[in-house]
Amino acid sequence: MTIVGRRSRGLRLSIVAAAWLLFTSSGHAAPVDVRVREGAAHGFVDFFDGDTRIANGELVQFPRDQGRLENRFTIAFEDGSFYEETLTFSQERVFRLHTYHLVQRGPAFPEAVDVSFDDTGSYEARVTKPGEEAEDAKGHVDVPPDVYNGLASILMKNLRPGARAEIHTLAFTPKPRLLNAKLIPEGESHFALGSTRRVATKYRVAFHVAGLLGIAAALIGKDPPDVYYWIATGPAPTFVRFEGPLTADGPIWRAELARPRWIR
User: Does residue 22 fall inside a structural domain?
Assistant: First the structure.
């Protein structure tokens, strides 16, 4: 899951006019080392707005050629809305994102989005607000080696206990914006499976627009909102919960591991 940058009235002109500033990083971000190697995986989550179940999500991950893995996360909403992230990444000494594609549409979102980019810097983006013409952007953007759209929970599984990381992610308005993202552990949470008590580390992901423009964004409160992940600890850490918006200015939703409902 990743944050999609939504256009704000106060920043939109500044973002376009000062695009050359967006790729000045803080100097602290860096690729994340591989400690827990990924493999084939298949999982399900439910999304809630408060206590109301609004969507179901499905994660499929499998090996591809050139030593890469494909990761596809799809969310189908009760109101017909749709969200899908598809990405490929490698895991040699560090994790590296190679391709990324995001599609979102429907009434659950403030705008329809179709964006893609790869590690060569080639990108295409289309953002459509209700009742307005689509806005398109296409071109080349510098992609640092620590850009990790869609990989947040995987990176958290690879952090040592108590460790934090600072990485980057790309958001599109439809022009690309580089965001700093800090992965910050915020202590332990407990949950139960039957009579067994388990421990999860709660992480906060704090986003900040990179470069000089980021200073202006912080001053007027326009940085994207924080999101939260819970990662079960142990020799095989795993995702157990998410809380936050999927888009800037979007509603706060909660995602938890799903329980199958058997059809007789």
Answer: yes
Question: What would the DSSP string read from start to end of the chain?
Answer: --PBPPP-TTTHHHHHHTGGGTT---S---PPBPSS----EEEEEEEEETTEEEEEEEEEEEE-STT-EEEEEEEEETTS-EEEEEEEEEESSBEEEEEEEEEEESTTSSSEEEEEEETTSEEEEEEE-TTS--EEEEEE----TTB-TT-HHHHHHTSPTT--EEEEEEEESSSEEEEEEEEEEEEEEEEEETTEEEEEEEEEEEEEE-SHHHHHHHHTT-SPPPEEEEEE-SSS-EEEEEEE-SBTTPPPEEEEE-------
> Do 149 and 87 meet the contact criterion of CB atoms below 8 Å apart?
yes
- Please check the confidence at residue 18 and state whether its pLDDT lies above 80: no
**Partners of 113 in the β-ladder:** 104, 127
Instruction: Give the pLDDT of residue 5.
Output: 55
Residue 1 domain flag:
no
Residue-wise pLDDT tens digits, 106-146: 999 999 999 999 999 999 999 999 999 999 999 999 999 99
Q: What is the number of structural domains in the chain?
A: 1
Q: Could you say which DSSP state residue 81 is in? A: -
The pLDDT value given to residue 211 = 60
* Res 10 pLDDT > 90: no
In a domain, 230, yes or no: no
Task: Name residue 91's amino acid.
Answer: Q
What is residue 153's three-state secondary structure?
helix
Residue 234 tokens, joined: 């142990």
Q: What is the average pLDDT value for the chain, to the nearest integer?
A: 87
- The answer to whether position 196 is within a domain reads no
Per the structure, the complete domain to which residue 127 belongs is given by 12-181+208-223
